[in-house]
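Notebook entry, structure prediction.
Reason for the run: the old model in the group folder had no record of what sequence produced it. Starting over properly, with the input documented here first.
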Amino acid sequence: MSDAEWAVVRDAMPVPGWLEGWGGQPEGYCHRQMLDAVRYPVAGSITWRAMPADFPAWDRVYALFRRWRNKGLVAEFHDRLRDRVREAAGRNRESTAGIIDAQSVKRAASVPASTRGFDGGKKVNGRKRHIWWTLLGCC
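New structure, fully documented this time:
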């Protein structure tokens, strides 16, 4: 992680409880090192268990990632960095266009009947799911 990227996300990092007087033990790893470790499996398309030995133990990294994800910090980091990239390219911080797509998925035995339906156009009995993509290259 570059110094510029770290400067963007640093103030969004949670303050450890022991620094706020709540007690507990100091964390054993630097947040910047852990953020680098969290980004590594994504960038390299590897599993958590395949992380190199120069990072903290994979289970510690994954536990911290889950904690950050549950608090919404991963999305916050992503949004902040995306905004900086868009501004550097001379675009608006927020995208101005998007694409909506739908897909009919065949039913599974584990899907309750109350949430299933029939797509007459595709002749599929199941569930319809939708996704929205933001056009990053737009405007």
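Summary: The chain has a mean pLDDT of 78.
The old model has been moved to the deprecated folder.
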